[in-house]
Amino acid sequence: MRISIVTVSYNSKDTIADAMESVWRQMRRGFEVEYIVVDGGSTDGTVEVIRSFEQTHDLQLATHDFTFKWISERDKGLYDAMNKGVRMATGEVVGVLNSDDMMAADDVLEKVADVFAKKPELEFLCSDVRFVDREATLEGLRKTKTRRFICPMIWRPWMLTFGYAPPHPGMYIKKSCFEKWGYYKHEYRIGADYEMVVRFTRKHKAKRAYMHKCAVAMRLGGASTEKGNAGSFVGNNYDVVDANRENGYVGSRLLVLGKLPMKAMELIVPKIFPHIGS
Fold first, then answer.
1. CA distance 224 to 209
2. Over the chain, what is the mean pLDDT?
3. How far is CA 115 from CA 15, 37, 166, 227, 228, in A?
4. Which homologous superfamily does the CATH classification assign to the domain defined by 2-272?
């Protein structure tokens, strides 16, 4: 099995090295890793960091089941760049790792490959995600406290009516799903991944499963967690409503209030278990 990981970047020189190294460490026997970086034409030195990664691992890239490719060019935004990466992917399964984030452990993709191998009919896999401080590093990740923890173990597609979806970085999806049902709709400013989940899991009934494993450590303060963006309750409401309505389901900002108890638990649990997911 080949698993493709897509990282989208723009002016991410301070964080992308950890993201790339965390994917490099996923190499295990029994499956292939294809790593794709889609840069939006960064001007801060991100491209130089990407080139350095490519050069540093050049000998290993030629001798292990790990392939790396990247592009740097203008795009129409985050989701347009993600679509480029997914289309470039040659793996059976595709995951997305933000340039601010890191794989939560060195064996994440090994576990993903195991689940898909045992369930060949599986199309959509979701897993846990933890949020850590902006200053967190890959080397110190295990000792870093968890600030927010998302566990989609009890998640079901009907919960999308209330704005509750599995965390996007913890999803691993068969590429055939994108080919059958379409890609990210980049006209959504911050909720194209949410709309994709509605379309794939609720409308088209993708065969899904949950993996009891923390897949990604997300740094707070990135593009998806800033106030008013995808991580913000207020900023995400409009796209949640539109995504449900576009796919033929009820959508209301009042109904979205129903996810508040789950959101509260995501903050409360790490207070009790500060290293959950590490």
1. 24
2. 92
3. 29, 25, 17, 35, 35
4. Spore Coat Polysaccharide Biosynthesis Protein SpsA; Chain A (3.90.550.10)
